[in-house]
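We were asked to recover a plausible sequence for a given structure. The inputs and outputs are reproduced exactly as logged, with field labels preserved.

PROBLEM: sequence recovery
POSITIONS: 368
GIVEN STRUCTURE:
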């Protein structure tokens, strides 16, 4: 199996090479069947994943140009530190924290700290969380009274910053934010509701809903994946046991409900049929998260089970969804808006590449 993973990693490195030469100052967002990227000038919410892939490629291959690309694109994101969006967690964790952690890069450290400190200023103490913000990208429901499980992953940016700059208050904000989202988004059975509205003045929960899923009550695949990843990362960075428990609860639900193919449909409640879109990106996020959970578990049998689920998931993505060019296809960006429903998505590619770096021994799953 290691040969399969190594070959897949090499294909994805070639795709990184192609992408790096193709880009003209704008960030890759999603690509068509020919491999041509639709880009965003400021990175939207996905801008961190491209430099993140470059940091990983530099780690996996020792190629100097990947590190150069990573820092160049991280610098391009620096102005986003002041944008009013909770997705600064995605932007600055992947574009800059990876460089600080993997290479001790001083410029990456500075960029990451800038993003973390500006985001921290938007914390709402009444609600115990960071609102999505008025400029949260591509979301239909944004503002100072909206929350999303997608942002739990980003809280790891603040925990890293608390350690890197000896600013412990940042850690506390992150921990409270993540715990509040358990109340907001995690159902008792371990399934996940993507979003919540709350009163900005009192913090009271007003409603739960899934703004990108099949219905308000459905389980959108990427929300489930973001929860597994977010709480796995928060446990990894904080050591708090309750985050591991939440991540495992959500992971167990995924494993129990994903189709036998191991690749999720775009929404777990979508009627299954030959034309129903799968989401390779949600599946890749989950695979990377399962590897983190396996690394965190002390119980040998449980660790073996979760690791096997991760490896099996990566294998089906590699064998059925990663083409010879290193393109991970059939990611479903937004079924509700009919945008890029069977495409390569930059975040799906990032997480599959991260998982392959772990499975080929080039990256410790608990490192980033």
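RECOVERED SEQUENCE:
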């Amino acid at each position: 199996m290691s040969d399969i993973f190594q070959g897949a990693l090499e294909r994805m490195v070639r795709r990184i090479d192609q992408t790096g030469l193709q880009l003209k100052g704008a960030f890759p967002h999603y690509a068509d069947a020919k491999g041509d990227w639709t880009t965003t000038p400021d990175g939207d919410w996905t801008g961190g994943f491209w430099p993140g892939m470059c940091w990983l490629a530099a780690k996996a291959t020792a190629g100097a140009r990947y590190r150069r690309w990573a820092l160049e694109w991280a610098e391009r994101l620096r102005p986003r530190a002041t944008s009013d969006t909770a997705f600064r967690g995605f932007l600055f964790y992947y574009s800059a924290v990876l460089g600080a952690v993997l290479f001790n890069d001083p410029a990456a450290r500075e960029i990451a700290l800038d993003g973390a400190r500006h985001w921290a200023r938007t914390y709402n103490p009444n609600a115990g969380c960071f609102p999505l913000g008025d400029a949260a990208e591509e979301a239909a429901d944004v503002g100072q009274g909206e929350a999303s499980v997608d942002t739990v992953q980003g809280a790891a940016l603040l925990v890293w910053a608390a350690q890197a700059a000896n600013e412990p208050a940042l850690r506390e904000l992150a921990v409270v934010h993540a715990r509040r989202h358990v109340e907001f988004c995690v159902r008792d059975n371990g399934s996940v509701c993507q979003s919540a509205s709350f009163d900005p003045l009192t913090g009271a929960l007003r409603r739960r809903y899934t703004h990108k899923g099949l219905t308000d009550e459905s389980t959108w695949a990427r929300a489930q994946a973001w929860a597994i990843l977010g709480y796995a990362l928060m446990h990894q960075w904080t050591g708090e046991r309750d985050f591991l428990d939440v991540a495992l609860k959500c992971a167990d639900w995924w494993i129990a409900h994903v189709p036998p193919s191991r690749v999720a449909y775009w929404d777990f409640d979508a009627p299954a049929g030959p034309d129903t879109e799968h989401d390779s990106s949600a599946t890749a996020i989950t695979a990377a998260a399962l590897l983190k959970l396996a690394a965190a578990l002390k119980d040998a049998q449980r660790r073996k089970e979760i690791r096997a689920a991760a490896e099996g998931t990566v294998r089906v993505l590699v064998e059925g969804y990663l083409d010879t060019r290193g393109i991970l296809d059939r990611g479903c960006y937004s079924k509700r808006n009919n945008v890029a429903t069977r495409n390569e998505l930059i975040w799906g590619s990032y997480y599959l590449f991260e998982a392959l770096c772990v499975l080929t021994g080039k990256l410790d799953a608990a490192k980033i």
